[in-house]
Amino acid sequence: MGDLATIMATVLSFGTLAALVFGTGLGIVIGALPGLGSVVGLSICLPFTFGMDTVPSLTLLLGVYCGSVFGGSISAILINSPGTPQAAATTLDGYPMAQRGEAGLALGWASVSSVLGGLISCVVLIVAAPQLARFATSFGSVEIFALIVLALTCIAAVSRGNTTKGLLMGAVGLSLALVGTDPVTGAARFTFGTQFLSAGFDLIAIVIGLFALSEALFRVATGDSGTAEVSGTRIRLPALGQWKSRIATLLRSSAIGCVVGALPGTGAATASFISYASARQLSPKGDKFGTGEPEGLVAAESSNNAVTGSAMIPTLALGIPGDVVTAILLSALVVHGVTPGVRLMSEHLDLVNAIFIVLILINLAMFVLAFPLVRVFGRLLSIPQHIVTAGIVTFGIVGAVTVRGNPLDVLTAVGFGFFGLVLRLTGFPLAPLVIGLVLGPQFEQNLRRGLLLNDGNFLAFFTDGPIAAFLFLCVGLAIFGPVLRAGFARLRGVFA
């Protein structure tokens, strides 16, 4: 492992530790504020790293990245407004727990799950980085398309009580993803002649509108303060005995996050929804998901935080950025004269090992910093509710306009805020729309690439290879599994 003493001296130096604490704390705050998120935080910090040494600069960026993924769960639980798209699945059980006065316990489940998921991904990164990197290269367009289809089956899982409405919202999300420029031909689609829609709808603006602004509008329309039980919240850790029946979900969801994170172009939101759906299918408490079941929090938070470590696998081992976040990290490496790729492990082994240690320390620091930062965020909710509502709207609008610097994104956020209010009042779930919107671009691109590779023969997808066949088999089990279980239960009743 190289000179361990030199590596530890670099990692434990004052500059590196200061960057670790500051970056992780800043990331949690940025993630908790709806509309900001990982990309905005990294974009803000990147210029400041150019004059820093390599290890402290990467530590700062990794701290912002990991902290923001966890921070999104704070606002998701306390005010039903996910600070990042990765935390959308956290609202499904986190906010119901807060509504019945268990916000501190919900944050405890989320904090521990996030840290354990992150640490598991660090172990996977250290032990299996080269092997997982080679495995990731075996995923072509057809395999990624099958994985996206599997993620879309989450729509049925999160549409508790009305699958029809959930599927309709999923279709709306997929349709919204079609707006903009055709990824293959370059032609404009559904832009109605406006330049504003040529790049499509901004995901962050829509998420802000659907969750943050519609939450504020819903409180005004119904007179529901929404946060009376969570003001002054402190993290309350669950007892060890409560983990006994949920360890399997933690390990399975962390494994899903590690695998999905190693695949370029997928991301934490995909992993989170897949893990949530699989946990609901396999858990004996599956019928309680969506009503404030802690196992739903464990599935969502362990998975999306497990992505943070494994997402570094294609970045470090292959030099392939899987998304915008890892592309920024990749650019930071290049600026400091380090070329990621197959030779990184041999030419800069000390740096790679330092990154491994830094990721472990960031997850531990995230757990420690969560306690005071959650108290600060909770105290903000103890002020008069009309000011809280105004703050949600203000931060939401600022977040919407910050991402792309386009003032018209504010119109998108406000429009979807009113649309989200209508959906709330009529009982339509919001999560399926976000699932369709997040997965829509990758769904279309990989479908069309797969069709081009197979001369337009869609049936060839099912015989393209063992990985695609296995994923499509999982899709079939996810769709027809409940029907088969119900049929077997009836047969057992008849024979009994």
TrEMBL record:
InterPro entries, per database record: DUF112_TM (IPR002823)
Residue intervals of the DUF112 domain: 17-435
Residue intervals passing through the bilayer: 28-51, 58-79, 106-129, 141-160, 166-184, 196-214, 316-339, 351-371, 383-403, 410-438, 458-484
Ribonucleoprotein among keywords: no
Entry keywords, A to Z: Membrane, Transmembrane, Transmembrane helix
Keyword match Transmembrane: yes
Name the record gives this protein: Tripartite tricarboxylate transporter permease
